[in-house]
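thread: overnight batch results

M.L. [08:02]
morning all. the overnight job finished for the chain we discussed friday. pasting input first so we're all looking at the same thing
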Amino acid sequence: MTSKDLELDTFPKLIRRNAQERPNVPAYREKEYGIWQTYSWKDVYDNSRALGLGMVDLGLQREDAVAIIGSNRPQLYWVFSASQAVGALPVPLYQDGVAEEIQYVLEHAEAKIVVVENQEQVDKVLSIMDQCPSIQYVIYKEERGMRHYDQPFVKSYAEVLELGHVYDQKHPDFYGAEEIKAKGSDIATLMYTSGTTGRPKGVMLSFDNMVQAGKLSVEFESLNEKDKVLSYLPMAWVGDHLFSYSQATQAGFSVNCPENAETVLTDLREIGPTYYFAPPAIFETMLTQMMIRIEDASAIKQKMFHYFIGVAKKCGVEILEGKPVSLVDRLLYKFGDLLVFGPLKNTLGFSQIRVAYTAGAPMGPEVFKFYRSLGLNLKQLYGQTESCAYVCIQNDKDVRPDTVGPPAPGCEIKIDEASGEVLFKSPGAFVGYYKNDEATSEARNSEGWVHTGDAGIMTDDGQLKIIDRAKDVGKLKNGTLFAPQYIENKLKFFPFISEAVCHGADKEAVAAFINIDLEAVGNWAERRGISYTSYQDLAGRDEVYAQIKECVEQVNRDLGIDSELAGAQISRFLILPKALDADDGELTRTRKVRRRIIAERYEPLITALFSDASVADIESDMTFEDGRKGMLKASVKVANSETYPAMRAAS
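M.L. [08:03]
and the structure it wrote out:
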């Protein structure tokens, strides 16, 4: 049966089409031992077929769950298509999740087979096997370190592929018959939310959801088989699933997997993607590292950099969007592109990028404008797991830093008049929460509108502006609007600040926790002869507090020109003695702040911020780099910052 005979409503059918119509086109690439290995679409189909039949030989049946844990690897992406082709349900998990986190998901999803990347993940699964009675087999991709694992239920990926080849010889028609049984309305995958307020929920996404979201977004951006994407974000995150699986199978472009987390930036430069995605934190980190390198450069290079960056800020966005710019500014920008912007984008691996997205959390407008001013077609994408990350996409001709664009093709948006919450309808709107009908009915009303939990407003011309999480938006005692994420994003624009958490709802003023960026502040300290022994030591230095105070007061000056937020300037702040960490439950695996946990854990520090205390003592659990648990004890300084009278924005 050819692809033309099939309705292309599932991923296995799309992959079969790709194998028939573009068999030799690169589909997935992986850097291993410093060498790029390339797999064509025919390779994807053949390996998916063998893997799926190998799991059937191990006893996998339709509707069984197959868990996937590991870094971005072609072989792990093939677990999705292999499972789906034989009627099973793939369930990706965050590879850096601790044993307790993965135990909950494996037990809740009733995973029968767990496919993992390496020995570390095998050990993690084995440690919680007694709490997950549904697990029958653990399959590992990487054979290093696995020589002495002799449990009969622990199998290598290669061994399962061989089982599949033998099964295929005995039952040559089985795979094709199973492959065409699935239809668009069937559940394609089960993806668990990051769980900012409690246990993660299993989001059931159908083939119709993911296939349609992928198809419409591919058409919107005119993606094709010549495009290249770097796949390095967690496979358990819906955004990666959209880009590296749904869109890839639709458009036929190549998905490139880095060697490891430490080589991502090097691999980015080698691949030179045409299509790129990164959450705000990645772009912020790149900007920080860029500024560190500039500070280490010669005086002449520093002056040249800052001069042409000034030119870019003045006219770069207008040139990118094809708007009128004076001849002098256009010539200066061309010189800047030759001397600064071009080499900078080449160093970052951005030279070939045709379209870039950021999503997952709001990006500070200053960071957003910076990259666009360099000529990078960076746009904001808005969505969530429950929408297949498909609700709003910015149009190339109308990209604004303070909105996430109009509704994407096929989507509708409205704002709840009473609460200000954003509601949507989308082809990607989820089927429901697994084993949780009550939560499903709370998230989606009888008319099909899905609650996002985000507070937003629609502009007069139909663009969505996200203010904050609806539950986090509040007011100060004087009635001033308090939107913590908005203020936090302004703080994170500064290279010295990696994370911020603002407090102020129902208070007289706003106060902030600050995490310093160890690399940026450490580099600054070393160049000034300031010695330090640890993050905690550096974070407590008076010189560092002085630098952070300057950043906070600059944010206050910016807030002073916003009529709604001028009263929400930061009056006091402190620098936390440890970095907020997902392993300590303070951040989700997608690095969203868990405000409730932070409020409980650091309650003495919050109390000190809203008093006249200059020092506060704290004891807190923490996880060290080697995984050991310990107790942090520290005396933390509390600093005042100047606030400014409200003023009119310059017209």
